[in-house]
Amino acid sequence: MNRFILRSILMLALALVLLPVVAVAAGGGGHHEADPAAQWKLFAFAVVNFLIYAFLMRRFAGQPIKDFLSGRRREVADAIEAAGKAKAEADKIKAEFEAKAAKLEETKAELIEEVKAIAEAEHARVIAAANETAERMRRDAELTAESDLLRARRELRKEAAKIATELATEMIRGKLDDNERQRLLRDFIARVDAS
After folding, report:
1. d(CA 26, CA 135)
2. What is residue 78's predicted lDDT score, i.e. its pLDDT?
3. Do 16 and 61 form a contact (C-beta atoms < 8 A)?
4. Taking Cα atoms as reference points, which of 77, 88, 46, 61 lies closest to residue 4?
């Protein structure tokens, strides 16, 4: 409703402003010089016409135009305030994302350092395990070699004893008589029982 009234008043004002122009154009289109009094009358008519127009505009359209302009001013002020708030919010969000981005770089560097530390620790653990395994294998090899050496010595002793026994048996058979053999056998049994 308010806009309709405003448009009607503006159309009326436009018609009143253009009325003198139409009157001058209807007065004859000759190129003759008009007399100065007529020009002053025309000027006075235009001034009076403008004053009437200004009075009517102020009287009938003044308040709607004032309301429209003050409403528009409020809308613009509200829009500027909303834009300021939106800009502040956008700046806040931007700052948050920049902080997150900076923290992301920091976190990335921390993760890289942590992964390096884990890799170094794993490397040291693998080296230690390899050294331990090598040492265990060396000890096992030494124990196996020692055990094999002892077994070989036992077998050599056994074989030497067997050969010595066979040689001694052969030698004794030829030299010993039955009494001497009986005595050696008793001594042998006594030594076996003692050990």
Report:
1. 126
2. 94
3. no
4. 61
